């Protein structure tokens, strides 16, 4: 079953936001999608509580239960798993990467975030999984920052995802309400960025058809 791990050793880089938006976009595209929340803070699960019974499904589990939890969701008909992970959670991140077909590493283009990227790169390089840095919260007209960060990521043996997320109020506003950007601002840039990311990711995962 196609499985995406969202990892980054840095808190606030946008892991949970990315996991929930990607999973919800896939669910709107008729994929039965499950978010597995490995973060003890359970932010994704809290978002699911605020949201109520809408898709996607969200479950929490400790890292040692990840494999069996994935198997259980698969038996229940899940077609796509997105794993959200805590920062500083080496075991969680390692288990998530091991389970994944695609690893996404959201990163803000700032010095300390790039420093944290080194630790994350080390972690994913062992697993030999396709891993892409997704630049998050990119300010307008930041072409130079994007180019520099891309070069830095490549120096660490990582690739840069072709899609970046801008600094967009819709990401923040929607998450607080148990929603996603496309639900609060369907025509907005955040919604378009998420859609572009899902179209690209489904290609990486070999998922047929177009949403
Ligand atoms: N592209 C973005 N634009 C605006 N706010 C964002 C963006 N990505 C994340 N945020 C906000 O940044 C904060 C941290 O994001 P979060 O997804 O919780 O990070 P992590 O899970 O890596 O700790 C949240 O308040 C979230 O709403
Ligand atoms: Mg989080």
TrEMBL record:
Membrane-spanning ranges: none
- Where in the numbering of this chain does the CobQ/CobB/MinD/ParA nucleotide binding domain appear? 4-141
A Pfam family in this protein?
CbiA
Under which name does UniProt file this protein? ParA family protein
Q: Which organism is it from?
A: Novosphingobium mangrovi
């Amino acid at each position: 079953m196609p499985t995406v791990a969202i990892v980054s050793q840095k808190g606030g880089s946008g892991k949970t936001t990315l996991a929930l938006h990607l999973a919800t976009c896939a669910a709107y595209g008729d994929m039965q999608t499950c978010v597995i929340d490995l973060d003890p803070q359970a932010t994704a699960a809290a978002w699911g509580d605020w949201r109520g019974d809408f898709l996607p499904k969200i479950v929490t589990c400790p890292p040692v239960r990840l494999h069996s939890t994935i198997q259980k969701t698969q038996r229940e008909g899940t077609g796509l798993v997105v794993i959200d992970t805590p920062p500083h959670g080496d075991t969680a991140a390692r288990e998530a990467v091991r389970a994944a077909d695609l690893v996404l590493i959201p990163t803000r283009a700032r010095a300390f975030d790039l420093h944290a990227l080194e630790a994350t790169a080390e972690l994913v390089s062992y697993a030999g999984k396709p891993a892409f840095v997704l630049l998050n919260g990119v300010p307008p007209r930041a072409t130079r920052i994007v180019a520099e960060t891309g070069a830095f990521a490549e120096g660490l043996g990582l690739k840069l995802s072709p899609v970046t997320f801008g600094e967009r109020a819709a990401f923040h506003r929607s998450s607080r309400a148990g929603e996603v950007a496309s639900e609060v601002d369907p025509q907005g840039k955040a919604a378009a960025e998420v859609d572009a990311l899902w179209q690209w990711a489904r290609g990486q995962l070999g998922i047929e058809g177009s949403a």
